[in-house]
Design brief:
3 domains; homodimer; alpha/beta; 6-stranded mixed beta sheet; Rossmann fold; 5-stranded parallel beta sheet
């Protein structure tokens, strides 16, 4: 276990869920627990460490023995998830001190963020007691920890495998969107911490931890308000010197700032200040949640190596090529005309009529041989710094047309996906030019698109749902690299 | 049949497909025919009129008798789809004149758009002969006609039902994206014409037709180049005086213009010129294909009645609410703070802790009763001109948790969708404030999201996949309405 002050919170030997309702994890049951217990069971924490529901009104929840109070649970309990109302927290804190736990995660909301002076006073007392006892607090008003290597998760459906991305989030919902959304694209996480109002552990502590954590290679964060501006600046700067850091700030408009104040009590920052923070620390700025997702994919694939603005696009459909070119240009990149020699090579097997080799190259790359030949020739053209190409991902059966049986068709599609990715990877390895997959196959089934992007990601190939998003990710990557000139390379 | 010169091309009694390959409609077979025959079979044209494959190398294709030449087909054949190479077209034209057909659709590419002077000469000769014989031509280099009432389609999977939207497209691929994409959202079409290089029938003819067509209430178009600027301007202006017209122009950047020139031989126009065209004619300008889709949904739902910029957002998840507020403000709309009286009414059943009633209103509207109460109160607030609310669309079973059987669950979800839409519609009817559905339920199955948006659309409720797109559609609608002041109302 690395020697960082926060390390122990990520390795609890036992977890008690205090106030967990008996309806935990039942679809539509509500009750505010959001399925913490069922998520921990799904991950398999119970097979690894002790998992103890605490609820005086139940004897068993989800097949686990339920305890009347925290003090009744077996030892050791290192981590407590507090699901009780705020007014009951002081009693729980006393019990936690007696129980010698290491950390408490307060899902509980209703502390000082409500603006109620009585609750603010209670919050101060709680902080004082926890500090004195050496117990770390996550939250309040947050979803807490996702640590796949330790089988800890805060929502159902989170991947069980670990990865290299650590996310620091001031919103549990947004952290969930990132894990689910990027999970579908093949991304895996070292740790995700939803830290809410941060009465103890704050964003800067987590950046400090992430920079030191050997399991973390990429850091991303969703932030609403900064409690300690100077510490935050220094922590982000130190982290961004050693690892790529991708930041999204919520509340940059006045409407967003008002919402952030309601959500986490955060005060507004301006776009200019945040932009300056990113520039001065060497962090990448995501302007939207889509940006954050797309940049995480970019830094973990060949997009990180893109050397310039020349984009070659290989995609069938003339009108689609036109709108795509507009989208690439709007993102600040170029669609350079194909050099004559490259055109000549392409016209050896691409017919003149009905298609264009001018860039965009209007072809469907019908067979693997044609795909490999096309990609190699296009990637080798001196004008092109990156190639965006749309793979075929298994057409659905046409109604009424002859079609092989489903199982055989499924096998063929999986084979087609594997071959496409091999082709992309081979071209990329040979030429050093990043190949990016565009997932626009209208006839593909959603689960096959997911399979494609996961397998592609594992092979170092980025996949994006639209040309606009691919182009934007490439443009943001180039902008960030230009800005970092003089700083150590972290990719 | 209305008395418009183009009307007959939409009502052929028999269709011959000349040069259709025997692999038509076989997945992955290629061959360039794109499944015209299988699409017509799928729509059921063969049950309505004569459907005649012509190919000297086959005796039967897809179960239909195949004829060696056009002259061998039974009478009447009113419409010919030409799938043969350009050099064979003059012979086909002679046969078509002899056969007394009314129209020819040239899927065939390789005419003057190749820049080959010989092909340009041939094109002129073909035009002269067709004109003299009174035969109308669609294309070349296009996908032709989709007329669901006549069971004519050019791609598989097009809806069989008719609707009120006519699309005019200079790209077959983009027309296909519109029909498939908007079809999934519940939109149906009167006619779609992919007219390609327009050697005879051009955009202005089609606008003229669409303005007069009683089946068409909404007109949308994808245009790359304008062949007759003055005629086009007048046709769009006349159409936009009587129906909403939504225009997307490809090739507005220099990269896009180069691609458009390769695609349809079109010359560039500038953003300023196109913007001026839209302003002066009273048309709506879509800047992207997403805009076009979202505006078609807007003009056919209550979004068309939105009266101002005040947006109320009802959605669970504090961080999501923050980013959504930023997105709404970025689109040029407002997220007005909830008036005190409205807050008081909401706080009667929404707890203070952990949620906000400040707008965005951070609640999941757990039960239908709560949803109706919440929507009514929020829509009635004087600050709000439109409400965006995220419905629950059937949570998926949580792994390991107790769950009703699949059939029962499916029934419950369908019921939930129906109830949500009824609630939205009831609130909208009572208050006159448009309610817009945000499809962000991460746990919903894709087919249930589709079901929701189709049923919602049928009830006059718009559904958008993101807050950013909902806000943009609303903002574009307001902008268009402000610009049209002084023009007749068409919505």
């Amino acid at each position: 276990m690395p020697d960082h002050a926060l390390e122990p919170i990520f390795h609890p030997r036992g977890i008690a869920l205090v106030g967990v309702p008996s309806s935990d994890g039942v679809p539509g049951a509500g009750g505010g627990s959001s399925g913490f217990l069922s998520s921990l069971i799904e991950q398999g924490f119970g097979e690894k460490g002790g998992l103890y529901p605490v609820n005086p009104k139940a004897t068993e929840i989800r097949g686990l023995k339920c305890y009347p109070t925290l003090l009744d649970t077996p030892d050791p309990v290192d981590h407590v998830i507090s699901l009780i109302p705020a007014r009951a927290v002081p009693t729980l804190v006393d019990q936690a001190i007696q129980k010698k736990v290491r950390s408490i995660h307060f899902f509980t909301a209703g502390f000082s963020e409500t603006g109620d002076p009585e609750m603010a006073k209670m919050e101060q007392e709680v902080i004082g007691k926890l500090k004195a006892a050496g117990i770390r607090a996550v939250g309040p008003n947050c979803m807490g920890l996702y640590v796949p290597s330790e089988r800890i998760a805060f929502m159902n459906g989170f991947p069980k495998e670990s990865g290299n991305v650590m996310m620091i989030s001031q919103s549990g919902a947004n952290a969930g969107d990132v894990v689910h959304g990027l999970g579908r694209r093949g991304v895996r996480f070292s740790k995700v911490v939803s830290f809410g109002n941060g009465i103890d552990i704050r964003a800067h502590d987590l950046f400090d931890y992430a920079a030191a954590d050997p399991e973390t290679e990429v850091i991303t964060a969703y932030i609403e308000g900064v409690q300690d501006g100077r510490k935050m600046f220094e922590a982000v700067k130190a982290a961004a010197r050693v690892k790529p850091v991708i930041l999204l700030k919520g509340g940059l408009t006045s409407a967003g700032a008002r919402a952030a104040h309601s959500h986490t009590g955060s005060l507004a920052g301006s776009i200019d200040i945040f932009e300056a923070l990113c520039r001065q620390t060497g962090a990448m700025r995501a302007e939207t949640m889509d940006d954050l997702h797309d940049l995480v994919v970019a830094v973990n694939t060949s997009v990180k190596r893109v050397r310039g603005r020349g984009v070659a696009l290989i995609v069938g459909g003339g009108g689609f090529a036109v709108l795509s070119s507009d989208a690439i240009a709007t993102a600040g990149l170029e669609v350079p005309p194909t050099p004559d020699e490259t055109k000549r090579l392409l016209n050896e097997f691409i017919p003149v009529a009905g298609t264009s080799v001018n860039n965009p190259i209007d072809t469907n790359m019908g067979t693997p041989d044609v795909a490999l030949k096309t990609l190699r020739i296009v990637a080798a053209a001196p004008t092109n710094d990156v190639v965006i190409a749309a793979p075929n991902i298994g057409q659905r059966a046409v109604q009424g047309a002859p079609d092989p049986d489903t199982e055989e068709r499924e096998r063929q599609i999986r084979e087609q996906i594997k071959t496409s990715i091999d082709t992309y990877k081979q071209t990329q390895d040979e030429t050093g030019i990043p190949i990016v997959a565009l997932l626009r196959d209208r006839s593909a089934r959603p689960e096959m698109l997911d399979l494609f992007q996961q397998e592609a990601y594992a092979a170092g190939i980025a996949a994006y749902p639209t040309v606009a998003r691919a182009a934007r990710a490439i443009a943001l990557m180039l902008k960030w690299r230009e800005r970092r000139e003089g700083l150590p390379a972290v990719l």
